[in-house]
Amino acid sequence: MSSPKAPQRQVPPTPQAGAPLGEGTKPPWLQLAVGKTRRALLTVFRRGFIREQLKYRRGACRQCGACCRLAFPCPFLNSKKLCVIYNLVRPAACKCFPIDPRDLKDVGGTCGFHFVGATEAAADAQAGRAPGRHPQQ
Ligand code: SF4
Q: Domain range spanning residue 76?
C-alpha cells in the first residue's frame, strides 16, 4: 500500500547567492528611503555639490507629485494631493528635486527634468540659457 502524496509546495525563487546589493537590486522601499536620506543630507552638508549639479538640470517641474510620494506620501499633501506648504516652508530637499540623475530613477522617469552633459551645460551657460528650475525657486 502506498502512502498518500504530500501536497507540493511552491518554493519562491531564491536570490542569487553573492549577488551585490547595488543599483537595481535593492527593494524599492529601501532604494527610495536611501534616496530620501541622501537628499536630506546633501541639502545640509553638500550645498556646493547641489549648486554644481543643478547647473546640469534642464526641463521644468510638471507638478506630477511623484517626488512627494517617495518611500511614503508626504504628510503635507492635502486631499487633492496638493502641497499645502509649497510657498511657505517647503524643505530644501523638495525644492532641489531632482539633484542629479540618481533621483530620476526614484521617480521612474516621470519627472519633467533631465540632465545634460558638461559640453551642453557649458554651451548653455555661454549663451545665457538658465538651468531648469521649479516655480518660485
Ligand atoms: S520635480 Fe519632477 S517628480 Fe517632482 S513633481 Fe516636479 S515633475 Fe514631478
A: 28-127
Ligand 1 atom having least distance to the Cα of 98: 1
What's the pTM value of the predicted model, to 2 decimals?
0.75
Tens-digit pLDDT profile for residues 28-83: 889 999 999 999 999 999 999 999 999 999 999 988 899 999 988 999 999 988 89
Ligand 1, atom 4, lies closest to the CA of: 67
Contacts for 26-30: CB closer than 8 Å, 24+ residues apart: 29/71
Is residue 104 included in any domain, yes or no?
Answer: yes
Contact 60 CB / ligand 1 (< 6 Å): no
